[in-house]
Amino acid sequence: MSLSVQLRPVQPDDEEQLAQIYASTRQQELAVTGWPQAQIDVFLRQQFTAQQRHYRTYYPDARHDLLLLEQAVIGRLYVERTSQRLHVIDISLLPDWRGRGIGGQLLAQLLAEADSRAQVTSIHVERHNPALRLYQRLGFQLCEDKGIYLMLERQPRG
């Protein structure tokens, strides 16, 4: 099933939604800490702020989009495009939208774009992220082991 997901450039007033998307990707991991929810919330806000600062510093020309389905925000997609590569900085879906093929659909579109330009596609992924299996199915291969993160690349096809 193909869903018609729309991309909308992130606006300054989207920060709270972006923070919620980020927090949704870390809830399961932090649930085992035993921390009170207030402490988890503070930690998640600090981590979100640090992540956003990192992305702006190291990927200043990247495109940051919200993912919309029938005007409802369902996730985010950050992509850096250079003359040599298409780098997926972040692709995150809210929990209710995971496992429905949306991430695979978006990645297939990005891979087709990279293939049409004969570009390598790259992505960082946490070693234990369930999406790693999807990336491998799509042809991504380990390029560099960075400890907690893996750098994956997919060579252009065509």
From TrEMBL:
Gene3D superfamilies: 3.40.630.30. Keywords: Acyltransferase, Transferase. Residues 5-158 form the N-acetyltransferase domain. CDD domains: NAT_SF. The keyword Acyltransferase applies. The keyword Cell membrane does not apply. InterPro entries: Acyl_CoA_acyltransferase, GNAT_dom. Transmembrane segments: none annotated. One of its GO terms (molecular function) is acyltransferase activity, transferring groups other than amino-acyl groups. PANTHER family: PEPTIDYL-LYSINE N-ACETYLTRANSFERASE YJAB. This is N-acetyltransferase domain-containing protein.
